[in-house]
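=== Structure Prediction Worksheet ===
Name of assembly: unnamed complex
Input type: mixed (protein and possibly other molecules)
Chain count: two
Listed entries:
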Amino acid sequence: MVGRNILMELELRNVSKEFDGVSAVSGVSVTMRKGVYGLLGVNGAGKTTLMRMLCTLIRPTAGEILWEGSDILEMGADYRDILGYLPQDFGYYPDLSVTDYMMYIASIKGIRPGAARKRTGQLLRQVGMEKYEKRKMKTLSGGMARRVGIAQAMLNNPKVLVLDEPTAGLDPNERIRFRNLISELAEDRLVLLSTHIVSDVEFIANRIMLMKSGKVFYQGTTEKLLSSMDESVWHCTVPKREVNDLVRRYLVGNVKSAPGGAELRILAKEPPAEQAVREEATLEDAFLLYFGEKVGGTDDTEI
Amino acid sequence: MILRYELKKVFSKKINRIVLIGTMLAAVVFSMFAIGGVQYTDGNGTTHAGVTASRRLADDKNRWAGELTGDRIAQAVSSRKEMNSRYSYDVPDEEYGKTVQAYSDIIYFVIDVLTPDTGWDENVLYQLEDEQAEDLYSIYRENQQKMAEEYGKTPRQRQFLKEQYDKIDLPLTYEAKDSWDTLMVYVETYGMILAIVIGFLAAGVFVEEFRVRADAVFFASRYGRTKAAGSKVLAGLLIATIIYWTGMGILLLISLGVMGISGGGTLYQIDFPYSIYVMTYGQYCMLAVLGGYIASLLSASVTMLIAAKMRSANVAVCVPFFLFCVMQFIARALSDFLTFFKFTPDMLVNVIGCAKAPNIFQAGNLVFRQIPCVMLVYSALAVILLPFAYKSYHCYNLK
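=== Predicted Assembly ===
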């Protein structure tokens, strides 16, 4: 039993999901163990579908998902017992108080009332919501509700914690707070964090999976990902009239106005301009390279 | 613990609270209607209604309380005939309050006994000889046999009807029963309202997760597809039970508390001598209450099933209204399908109508009456539907 716990392995074998003949996830094979995994992809890449399959909310059209060698759908309640999930579209019961909401979720997670009360108190303190425990859920701000969301996911001290876009819609301060919180909670468990905001993953994920058009086409460490890039990152200041031409010819990350022109961050094999200076690549650059578009909202890169 | 919070989810919603308070207030209002529905005429010919009227009426009528022997029937008939000869058909209010009101139930009983299958005809009373009045129960027994022959379509049905009539102990025991009689109408109407309200509340139990998009967390939880889904079924039944008995309890307590329980032991046959339901007024009222409860359970089951299937309460909440209210009007419009409409769910909240009519049915050698059949079938259906509601909910998205 102890050996099995140490193994802590979640394996996806050729998992696919189709909706009315349209493929959302296609032949994904991944093995995850203890640690934080960042699942990156643009909107519509299939991240949420994959996560919903991991949470037994939908059945794969093909393939299987195994937890320590057993099919998670066959394990049923036993698998869900070790699962914590914060969905992208986190819904709650608006008329329940924060404590009642937590106690209800604890009850459907099979936690005894005494333990549930204790755990609820602990988690609300940890997410900084202890002051609001009597407040109705509907009166909470988006960030506060998400903090309760992560607290509910942690109620059963899950071995597998699935967080689908946990920072979406949060203001920069809340996002920093949330990232720190996830790092704190990530110890001794498998955390799968889906996002299209690169900076979230950059800070807390040990390993990264890139997903596009329903397929996971890269999995590994950030360092390995960056070293595998076949293009370099260049920083240059050019006259404004040349900007459009460069944007057309290269993958351009940032464009920022500067005295006498514009500062550009460009991905290219060769220096795109005479005065271009090579810079160290970041995960955002990799995202730009692999997905061919700039990521997240404007605030993503400012953090 | 799951069940407790499941109920809390329902009762913490503002709209549900408003509906609930409104329903409980309706119980009070209906009680007032029932109390105000009884009229009493005093010896001065003044008619009273309201809080004291029913008890004063019962006191007046209970001068005739006790075993209703042939002699006492003859005495009442004789008095009524004398009144008629003195005042023709127009008895003054003073005289009505002093004498006629007290034995009016007995007079109505006599007329009903003498007109088993014809329309109400008061004249039969005035044609009745004293000896015939004294021997009314013989006429009653004879007419019971005739009714059995007329309404029993097969020998087995005739035998069944005769067996039912044989259960009527004669002479009847009389006690004023106006409080029960008046209450019945409100018990049925309020029972129907409760069934509709319960359907509305129970439908929400199975759609709340989808409405607030909390389904992902719910179904990803350990008991989300097992115990928690089962608790929803239980919560629906508990909601039906708690609300029904609380609402109906308020109505019965206020009404009977004010009007009194005189006549609870009087046989229903005092009003409908040829009814095939041999029961006291207390049992009659409880039968209507039970019918309402079964209607409420059915309402909860049906709405939970529809809501669980459709992931929406919009259609589900309309179904009880259709079953218990609209169906009655459809039945009146489609008189060619009378037999079918004798078994529709609205019969659960129409015990008054069912008890009057000698509706019996036969399947093989088994003869059965309408009310027990309807109650049994819909109780069973309310239970049978529950696993389907559970099943369609717990395997959500996994088929």
